[in-house]
Every structure is written in C-alpha cells, then in structure tokens.
Amino acid sequence: MGKSRLMxxxxxxxxxxICLDIFFPIHTRxxxxxxxxxxxxxxxxxxxxxxxxxxxxxxxxxITPTLREAILHKEDKYFYYHPGFNxxxxxxxxxxxxxxxxxxxxxxxxxxxxxxLLEPRERTYGSKIVELFRALQLEVHYSKDEILQLYLNLIxxxxxxxxxxxxxxxxxxxxxxxxxxxxxxxxxxxxxxxxSLRLGRNNSLVVQERNRWLNRFRSSELFDDAxxxxxxxxxxxxxxxxxxxLAPHLSRRLRAxxxxxxxxxxxLHPNVQATAERLVQNYANRIRALxxxxxxxxxxxxxxxxxxAYIGSANxxxxxxxxQVDGVQAIRSPGSAxxxxxxxxxxxxxxxxxxxxxxxxxxxxxxxxxDNYDRKxxxxxxxxxxxxxSLNVPAVALLKEIETPTLVATLRKAGFSTVKRQAxxxxxxxxxxGCGVTLEEMTRLYTGFANGGTxxxxxxxxxxxxxxxxxxxxxNRASSSTEAVTVLSSEAAYLVTQTLSKITRPDLPxxxxxxxxxxxxxxxxxxxxxxRDAWSIGYNQRYTIGVWVGNFSGVGIAELSGANTATPLxxxxxxxxxxxxxxxxxxxSKTKSSSKLAMRLICPESGDIPDESCDNPVTDYYxxxxxxxxxxxHRKAVFTNPAGTLSYCAHCRPDDDxxxxxxxxxxxxxxxxxxxxxxxxxxxxYDVAPPHNPACERVFGNAGPQITSLNNGSEYxxxxxxxxxxxxxxxxxxxxxxxFWYLNDKLYCKASPTKAVFFKPRAGALKISCADDKGRNTxxxxxxxxx
Length: 787
What we know:
- Among the domains are: 30-233, Biosynthetic peptidoglycan transglycosylase-like (Penicillin binding protein transpeptidase fold, Orthogonal Bundle); 635-681, no CATH class; 706-786, Immunoglobulin-like, CATH 2.60.40.10.
- It has 21 helices and 28 strands.
- The termini are far apart.
- By secondary structure, it is of the alpha+beta class.
- The longest helix has 22 residues, at 2-23.
- It has a five-stranded antiparallel beta sheet, sandwiched between helices.
- A hairpin with a 2-residue loop joins strand 24 and strand 25 (746-751).
- Helix content is 31%, strand content 17%.
- The model is unreliable at 465-481 (pLDDT under 50).
C-alpha cells in the first residue's frame, strides 16, 4: 500500500513537472560577445554583446581538465552526481542557518548558480524554490558538461566582464587553454568577490586569496605538489588589456553576416594577414606624398578558395581618409582589368588566337572613339601583344564582335552584382572601365584563370565543426557552398595566363640575381577614367592577390596608374608570401587527352592559315574544333599592266594574248580603310595597288566611305552668336584617291580621304554625303540646334 502511494506520488510529481516545464520553459539563450578568430584559432577581433558586456563564449574544448577540477573542487564537488541540487548540503546549510540565526551558507550547486545568473532574483526562500525547479529543468534538457559550460560563460568578474573566457582574454591576454594553474585559480576565486578582488588594482589581495586556495588544493591532493609549488611562486601580472582589434574590416563583415554566432572562425592565416597589413601600411606611407591615401588587398588560396588575408584600407583608425571604408567591397571602376576575360571569351568563340592580328588604329565605333593610355597607336598588332600592353581599340573592337551582352552575361555568371544591376545601361565602354566592380569580385574572377576557367565561391570561414547539444552549444556555421561556375574553357584560361605571364615585371632587372627564387605570376593592371582607381591583380598556382590603390573620396590623382602605383605593392606581396616556392607553375598541369590546344603554322602578318603569298610562317596555339580556319588575305592578287601603273578588274582586264598589254598578276597589301588611313597619317609606306583603269565602264558597289567624325541621327547645339566650325572625316578603301563632300546634296568640296574638312553649320536639318572616286557614297543626317 505504501509502495503504491509512493509510486502515485512520483507519477503526480513527474506529471506536474512536465506540465510546468512545457508552460514555463527555461530560456538559455544568452547575448554573447562576438569573437572572430583566425583559421588556427588565434583571436583576431572581439565585439561587445548587444547589452554592452564582454561575455565571450567558452567552447567545450577550452574547458581543460585542470580548469574543470579547480572549478568543481571550489564550487561543487558533487556536480556530476546530484540532480541539480545537493540535498545533503541543503540540510547542512539549513541547520547552520537555524543555529546561528542568520544565513551563513546557501548550499547552491553550479546548476543553481547558473539558474541565478540566467534569471537574477532576490535571495528569498521563494526564489530558492524557483531555482530548484529551474535547476531540475537544466539537468533534464542539458548534459553536465553543457551546464558547466554555460556557468563558465556567465560568472561575473566585475565591471562589464562576464565569463571565464572574457576574463582570461582581457586580463591575461590569452585563451583559457593556455592558462596556468595559478591563473586558473585566480579566475576561479574572483567571481565570489568581484568588487574587492579587482584584477589589476588589488593584485596583492588577489594573490593572498589565490595562495590560500592553492594550499587547500594541496591539502586535498587535487594537483601534484610540484605544480602547486610553481603556482604559489608565480607572480600575478594581470591587468586590463584592450580587446583584440585585428582584421577589422573582415571582422565587422563576418559579424554582420553571422549575428547569432558567438565564435566565428575565419579563414585568415594570421602570419599572412600580418605580413600583408605591414606591407600595405608601409606602402601607403610611401605614396602619401603623392596625395594617394588608401589601399585594399585581398589574398586567396587557389587550392581551397579560402581568403587568407583581407585588408580593407591602409589604416582602419584613419577617419580623415575614410579608413573604415571597406575597399574590398567598395564599388569602383575596373579600368582595363576586365580585358583578360574578354580575350578569353574571344579565344573560346574562335575569333582569335594569340597571334591573330588586330588593328590598333584610330577607330570610330558609332560615335565612340577610344584612345590608348599613352595616346599612341601601334597599327596592326597580335592579340597577345594587345592584351599584354592593354591596348584599348583592339579590346573595344573585340567586344563589338563578341557583343556586350555576352560579356555582361559572363560577369553576371561570375557574381558581379553591380554589373547585373547595370546590365541594360552598359555599352562598349565597359571594357575600359565603364561599369562598377569590387575588389572581391575581381579577385574571385582571376582565381578562375588560375583554376582553368572555373570559379568557386570565396570562403571566408572554415568548414563547420561537428557538435551536438541544444541552444547552449552554438558553433560556427561556415558556408560550405561548392558550386562551381565555368566562365572559360581550360584552353582559353591557359592562353590568357601565358599572355599575362609574359608582361615585364617591375622588380626586374633590380632583382635579376634573385630571379630564380622569385614567384612566377600572371598579372594585369587597370586604371580607371580620371585616374581614380589603380588596380593590379596577379595569380599563380598558389595564390591570387588583388590590389586596389586610390582615394575613397574618388579624387583623381595625375600620378595614379595600375602599372606604376598598384603593381609594386602586388609584387611586394607575392615576393614576401611565395618567395623561393618549390612549385613555380602558374596552373595545374593538364593531361594531353583533356586539352584541345594544339600548334599550327600561321602567317605572321595576319595570324591566319598561310596562303600562296605568305612568307616565313610561324607557329601559334589554336583550340581544335573552335578556332576559325581562315586563309590569310593580308595580300590580294591584282592584275596590272606590265608597268604596274594601272590595275584591272575582271570587266576591263585585257586577254592573256594581248601582246605587250598582257596583264601581270601582282600581290599588294590588303589593309582595311582605317589601317590605310593610319599608315597615310603616319607616313608609313606599304604596297598600294595602282589606280583602276580609267577607261573601265564598270559600276562599283554601294560600299562607300565610312563617315567617322559625325554621328548619324545625332543632335548638335551651336551658339549663333559665336562662330564655330564642325569637322568632317571619313575612312575609305585603300584604292580611293579622292572623296567628295556634299551638304544637303550640294557639293561642298573634294579632298583626299585622310584630310580633315571643316564647315560652318547653321541651325536646321542637315544631310551629309561622302562619295569616293569609284562612285560609291554614304549618307547621314543630323540636326543642328541653337543653344
């Protein structure tokens, strides 16, 4: 009968406990300070919690056996044996309180103290009953280790410092795993008297109390005698340290992206980060005299895609120069730094091979007339020369052939968010910097060249740790996305890399003696319009490094350029991080079966397959089944009279048996009108076909001269009170000697194709016509308005 009543009583108690637990659950969510660590666990940055406390999260692995034994011996010897409260200790405490008539002992276990720290209440018997219930809830829902962990996270150390890890870092400058026995004992006694045992102020009193407990540990034989003796003799040098503030830009970013994580383990390598910060700051100090105040650097490990160094500005504390601006995420103009991906797309489209000839001559692209950085033109050049020397006209011509939406789509695929927003507004100028990008996007793009055309997301966090538990145990949820995006074929990426690796290094010949030890890299620069942004991005098999230099204010500096301003810092970083590397390859080696790259003979004058008129062919890479197979046409066959003074077309060519007038087949240069105009303007001689037979009655086609200096359909504004002239210009075929200009169908003048013609406009609609001496003409219409 008694046993039955006991069972019923237990059942009623359990049912009541379950109901109360459901309707009054215990909340263990705590607002922790955010701690940013490096990949190896080194502390980089610490932030206050939302309630302005230094409450750092102690992980289970940081609770060492020595720490565990010291805390339990001092606070709760039977912690692992009681259900949340110690009935024997409670009876003993109650007896003492009754005998003395005052409260001398509370008999609180670690579990009950944890409840009190979670839910502070007045010290009454009613509060004690609530604490007992909450203690049972903790024991039911969490393991003993998790409860001890939560206790260590909440114990007070005075001021706004809570938790053993916070005290360890702020008073001893180290993590709990590195604490000595003397330091552990010190941190174990302070929470009982946080107002009187003030570390850094009352260290002598703290030492007395510490040594008293160390002797108690010796009496209990908790630790060996030698360890106790060393701890007793250890001086106490604790004082309040500043919270660590390293890698501030990335730390703030990670905290904003992971607001609920108490410990965020970044992918940064502390040695690489420290080296990069030192080089960036020293370099910024040197270029400050040029009125250039900021730099940003991002370093990526190409094998893991982990960001190993992240410098958002030269000096985070420099508020005057915008030091807190994150240059890695700031939207800037890329200048010419996007050209490698354009050439890669052209390789993949079969439009060019490395030795294909492109025209670097003044060209009008429907009103857009790009110029080179040095204001000079080079005439016909190879594609690899144009990319290596960052020539603008060939790049714009390639983009026009590939079409802007193709490049935009590729950049969107590669994760360029600003380009995605600007997609409808972008034109040919985007390849020269007419779009918005970030250093992070550009560096990630260049990792694709290092990885055979495939881009992976950058990793700012280390992979997840395996853990268990409820709300108390929180772990770092690093992104594990491995989605790969292929923007170029491995063959195109290889050709781009080979071209970019041949650019003359700025550290040679000064470092010639050490050239064997210097890392081999491929790199590209960029300078934005107005000289506001200088870029230099390089990569090899190990690292990709992106460098931006400029002013966050957007002020242009005449001396600013990618080659002269950003590149020296890039090579300083590579030489410091990858000097004397055993692996000097730029890309992983590819098996022959997986590569479509092959070599073929081409004409050096055009880059096409040699024809009968081509001399001295050379070898060039091409992508099998992709690169176009076109016969060279850099020279054309023309029938002339024996003296070579007249040329014939098929309509007027004499018969082969015409005696002394028998036509002769000769080869002449076959250049485009814009190249012919360039040669004539620079007085560069070339083989020009003789004029056509004047007696020929053939009617030529309608492909007339191309008008370049005015744009069809445009509106022009003039000041009627001020005399002004407008220029007319055209590009005509190489065999054209004279062009005729017409204004509203009235002959205005005749001139050579390369001569600039000027006229005084009047308000109104105007039709402009240009005809050549072959009878071909081109028309355009413009509208002239008074201001």
